[in-house]
Amino acid sequence: MTTRTNEEWLSDLRAEGEVKNAALEDLRVIIKKGLPYALSRWLSPSQPQFEALVEEVTQETLLRVLDQLDTFEGRSQFTTWVHKIAVRIALTELRRKRWRDSSLDELTENEDIPPPQGLLADPTAGPETSAERMDMIAHVRRIIEEELTDRQRRALTLLAIQDIPMEEAARKLKTNRNALYKLLHDARLRLRKRLSAEDITPHDVLSLFENK
User: Fold this and answer.
1) Rounded Cα gap, residues 99 and 82, in angstroms
2) Which residues of 41-79 are buried (b: 16+ CB within 10 A; e: fewer)?
3) Does the pLDDT of residue 137 top 80, yes or no?
4) Is the pLDDT at 63 greater than 60, yes or no?
5) Do 10 and 98 belong together in one domain?
6) Which domain range does residue 157 map to?
7) Which pTM was predicted?
């Protein structure tokens, strides 16, 4: 496998014929080698569907990379950029399969499980900032538990946390899009009113998750 600089990756992938094919094959090897480690937190390589997922994600990543070559800004290694694209595609596919294969109860019963390491955390944050974040998360969770009905919490979990499409969430909740819109709207109004009563603004919540 040929070692390339960022500029060489871009040049070879924009080329035609054997040069481009060789670059794509090298990139395919790199993606397939990195995915098992990256996905091991969510799916064991020993599971029967793992190989098919890796193959599917690898192919989709190659297509996505070719489509988005002009967006690469060179702030990292090209292969690091590609790896991030592959992981995003893989996690999206895992969520899609989970929506299709799981019941509503299975999707919502574990909503208190924290997000994957690094999803919200800023690795440069100090202990004080990290403690503030944990306190705010606990506080917002308590408000959600106290202010929302069970059905509102489930709607919020499906749409805002699990990131499930509206149609799929409506199916899980055995309702229609219009009713689900109203359910979510009412839930947001309740949360906004309670946060305001405690002198907490949405900016206060979001600011804790910005880089310091």
Assistant:
1) 26
2) eebeeeeeebeebbeebbebbbeebeeeeeebeeeeebb
3) no
4) yes
5) yes
6) 127-207
7) 0.49
